[in-house]
Write a structure and sequence with these properties.
Length: about 240
């Protein structure tokens, strides 16, 4: 049986990296006695995969992971959530434990868009936020310079690191940008090819005169993840009774 788990990662846990979160849940599964399935072979490991990782310092209110349960086991959603949350520390909370179809794609592969909230640390007038958003979105294009590093063979056959830059118009991939109470709501493309970082959008708003959008002057939250059908990833599952 395949299961999709929805969880929150907030407070101090937002500074914990993705690999450590994976190890954290592996231990939590064992301690909570969740009948998770293991791979076969000389080094069996829990069958577990996660949605797109969060950037360091970003809180997640709608994070996902997929697991498989042993064939001869049964545990209700309510009981699994209770057991797991007893193992969670401050800043981590499991909110859903859903059965998904056996042929369902992993959460990472399904994710196409996500919504985010930037919450300013100081009070900002909504009119000032709206003014910056209108100035930014009225532009014909919003050009972002991306810097990437790749290893290539040089003339002597040795691999060297080469830095390349490219300019991308991200405006078509900002699906929604609006002012909320003391913050900004964003619905952005998060696909494998057009992955728009909310911090980059905030940087553009800062350039348009919104001083509160300066780096480290706001808290950033990922609210949920969606497929290309516009459905949240938890809409594909059902509770286990």
């Amino acid at each position: 049986m395949k299961v999709r788990i929805k969880f929150e990662k907030t407070e101090q846990m937002r500074f914990i990296g993705h690999l450590d979160i994976m190890r954290y849940f592996q231990k939590a599964m064992r301690r909570a006695d969740i009948p998770i399935k293991y791979s076969e072979g000389f080094s069996p490991h829990q069958i577990m995969s996660f949605g797109a990782p969060l950037s360091m310092g970003v809180s997640g209110l709608g994070e996902y992971m997929d697991i498989e349960l042993k064939e001869d086991s049964h545990i209700s959603s309510q009981e699994a959530i209770r057991r797991l949350n007893e193992m969670m520390c401050t800043g981590m909370k499991v909110t859903k434990f859903l059965q998904i179809p056996d042929n369902s794609k992993p959460a990472m592969a399904l994710m196409d868009t996500a919504d985010f909230k930037a919450e300013f640390k100081t009070e900002v007038k909504e009119t000032d936020i709206n003014a910056a958003i209108e100035k930014l979105m009225s532009k014909e294009s919003i050009l972002l310079t991306k810097v990437s590093k790749k290893k290539k063979k040089n003339q002597f056959g040795k691999f060297v690191e080469v830095e390349t830059t490219s300019v991308v118009d991200i405006k078509p991939f900002i699906y929604k940008l609006e002012a909320i109470k003391n913050g900004v709501y964003m619905h952005l493309s998060q696909g494998s090819t057009n992955n728009i970082k909310p911090a980059a959008v905030m940087e553009f708003l800062y350039e348009e005169g919104l001083s509160a959008a300066k780096k480290n002057e706001y808290y950033l939250y990922r609210l949920d993840m969606y497929t290309d059908e516009g459905k949240a990833l938890d809409e594909y599952g059902c509770e286990i009774i």
